[in-house]
Design a protein that fits this description.
Largest interface: A-B, 15 and 14 residues
Number of strands of chain A: 0
Strand order of the largest sheet of chain B: 1-4-5-7-8-9-10-11
Number of domains of chain A: 1
Mean pLDDT of chain B: 89
Distance between the termini of chain A: 20 Å
Strand content of chain B: over 45%
Shape of chain A: elongated
Number of domains of chain B: 1
Oligomer: heterodimer
Order of helices and strands of chain B: HEEEEEEHEEEEE
CATH topology of chain B: Lipocalin
Chain lengths: 130, 176
């Protein structure tokens, strides 16, 4: 249980850092300031929140002694990550923001960061690994 | 003697006619203007406006409005919607890059004024009357336009989600 929590927290933090780095690179590349629509704090908190949701899913499996369903849980995480990209596509930004067409390119990749880190860190927290 | 009389008469007519002159002010459009539109499933602004405003409350006969809105400056807050709006399915900005309004005459109303003129959008011109107020050097108007009158979009497929009637809220601050 502790392992799952640490994995969730660490993947949340790494995902938040990656999101902020990507935000800064994207802002530098497009010369557009996205602070008014997507701040680094929002990126960090959303990343940690998403990873904690995955953690809760894993904790639920652990509690129910159904860890063999991890594959199904991962597929569910993947499905939710994919479905969540419709959010930035359909999102209406404040009308004062001049470049709404650049927003999906910023936000969509970020929606996969939490799951990527959560899956990538899995082997490091697996008990009984060689 | 007779010549002097005529000279005085001419001077008097000239002097009196000066009192009948009415001046009109040619205004410049301040950059803090806003053109907002709201319809069902369609909301946004146009960011670029240019034009000429000649307006004097005491001389409506000599007043005139001429506005041009850049269709490509539409902003709905969503990049995909913006691209869709300027495509040939809606405004067809490549073929019709501007929306224009040119006044023909003005009338005074209870709450402000009304301007009669011709609105040209999507290559179609329609006569219309727009009520407006003029307070603190700001022209403000709230009126509606039926997009189908100008063949902007259709009522087929997903386009029918957007109402025919689009409400406009226009505020144009002016400077002398």
């Amino acid at each position: 249980m502790k392992n799952i929590l640490f994995r969730g927290l660490l993947s949340g933090i790494l995902s938040a850092i990656s999101g902020i780095v990507y935000l800064k690179i994207y802002e530098g590349g497009t010369m557009v300031d996205f602070e008014s629509v997507l701040s680094p704090i929002a990126v960090a908190s959303t990343s940690i929140f998403a990873c904690m949701l995955m953690t809760l899913g894993y904790m639920f499996l652990f509690k129910m002694r159904k860890m063999k369903w991890k594959g199904a849980m991962n597929l569910l995480i993947l499905l939710f990550s994919f479905l969540s990209i419709f959010g930035p596509i359909a999102f209406t930004l404040p009308l004062e923001f001049d470049y709404p067409e650049l927003f999906p390119g910023l936000a969509i990749p970020m929606h996969f960061f939490p799951a990527l880190f959560f899956f990538a860190l899995h082997p490091f927290f697996e008990k009984g690994r060689n | 003697m007779k010549d002097i009389k005529y000279f005085f008469l001419a001077t008097a007519v000239l002097a009196l006619s000066a009192f009948t002159w009415k001046t009109v002010t040619k205004w410049k459009i301040d950059e803090n203007y806003s053109i907002r539109f709201v319809g069902t499933d369609a909301e946004g602004i146009f960011k670029k406006l240019s034009g000429e405003v000649v307006f004097e409350e005491s001389n409506l006969e000599s007043s005139s409005f001429s506005f041009v809105v850049d269709v490509n400056s539409i902003n709905t807050g969503n990049g995909m919607k913006n691209k869709h709006a300027i495509s040939d399915k809606w405004f067809d900005a490549e073929e019709y890059p501007n929306i224009s309004f040119k006044s023909t005459n003005f009338t005074k109303s209870k709450v402000g004024y009304s301007v009669n003129g011709e609105l040209t959008m999507h290559g179609i011109s329609k006569k219309m009357t727009v009520p407006f107020t003029f307070e603190k050097d700001v022209v403000a108007a709230k009126f509606s336009v039926k997009r189908l009158d100008f063949k902007v979009g259709t009522m087929e497929g997903n386009s029918k989600k957007v109402s025919d009637e689009i409400k406009l809220d226009v505020s144009i601050p002016l400077i002398k």
